[in-house]
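Margin note: ligand = zinc ion.
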Amino acid sequence: MADKRRLLGSPLVEITFLGTGAAFSSTSYNASVLVERTLLLDAGAPLCVHLPRVGVGIDEPRAVLLSHFHADHTFGLAALLLGRSLTLDDAPPLEIFGPQGTGRYLEQLLDLAWGDAMRELAWSKLRLSVRELQPGERFTAAGMEATAYEMRHSRRFSCLGYVLGGDGVRLGYTGDAELSDGLQALLADCDHVIAEMTYREPAAMHLARTQILQLMDEHPGVRFLLTHRGPDEPVKGAILARDFQRVQLPLT
Ligand SMILES: [Zn+2]
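Resulting structure:
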């Protein structure tokens, strides 16, 4: 409960970047951000290595929020789920939130990774619960209030962004996203955002550095933390996140 009080009421929220590279980065790991010690935003990084490396046990996350079903945002779940099931005596339950189709996607991921018997073992040992969200839906994950927003990224499946928090810090997360009304709504509802910045110049499916500059101009009350990095060129006034970087919010 201490975590919930801190997020909702008091000034500090801790986030740790476990992977900050775009899908095919040659320098950085794939997407995952730990909020406090209990909530993961996406799961593309090798979490069985990266959580302990930042001093967090693989048993500590209680919820995972998936933005969409691309490998660079999800494949770390295969090892985390089975590792948690097989290496812990008393594996704590885990809730997984994501767009429509998350349950089926997870089944396929685990079947391909470990086979159906191990998938069933992990599912039952972790008392895995999957909640498939619609844009606009409010929910509670790891004791934190959250809202889902529709993002435009892949045309093949639903993609979501999130805003976490209530009365205190309101932290947005874009996942992967082009410019859209849903992205604008997310930015209007948060005071800090973890935003993707894949390209230097505008192109399909992702945000570009020039568009980040435009969004920062349009939302002066929002502090930007940039991840899913393509260009490494700094953006004045924003944090260009690095793997294993830990940040306390609100930014001063
Ligand atoms: Zn993607």
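The domain at 2-243 is CATH 3.60.15.10 (Metallo-beta-lactamase; Chain A).
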